[in-house]
Task: structure prediction
Amino acid sequence: MTQAVEGYIAVPPDSLEPGAKFVRQFIYLIGQPNGIMQSVCVEGIITCDPATGNPLKPITYAQGESIVKLLKRNTEDRKVIIDRLPALVKGIQYPNGITTQNLKDAGRQRVSIVFQAVAPAVADTLLSIIKKIDGVALAASTTIPVTNNKTLRIESMTFSVKAGAAAAAFATFTLRINPTGVALIGTQSELRVDLGNTAATIGAADKITIPFPDGFEVKSPQQIGISAAAQAITNVLSVSLNGFEY
Result:
């Protein structure tokens, strides 16, 4: 089994180029006599160019550096041929290992987009929504941009309507996403939700929560708008989009 690390090339051992000399030395430095890689931390000197096998100026690595850092620092963007990573025995807890992080968790920030107020109009109208990043509220707006160079992953949406008068309340919510700019009332609809109740009682309410197990993603520079139409401006509307940006 071969494996690529940080985008570098891995090839079967029977087609290794001269750089294998470097690889074997590298594995020997961080390995154990039995061939099982016990640690990814080394304190030693790598002296061979991975492309030619020629000696390099000695480079000393500090104890505690990861295998990925070693590869990147020593090769300076040259392609490295990785030999087989040693097999580990199942059930044995080794003292060291390589940690990984999903790309979606890099630079992750909690995001919520909310609205809670009486309906602004009977006709379909954009709501003045507020984006919160890690609990910090930004200015209310009818169009919310995704943070530059990030992706917004919405994990759930909640909509509700509550009667503010003794009349059956209903409302229609529309999620609008403009892929190139500001979200407007005419921007394409991505989701529509109709809510209502039949009780002509003040405080009668209806709500729905829509989960997205794999996430509903909106990427920069796209912008989000939410519009609502209600049978009366006494209705109290509530919207909450919850997720994170990465």
User: Anything to note?
Assistant: The helical segments are 20-30, 67-75. Confidence is low (pLDDT under 50) at residues 1-50, 56-84.
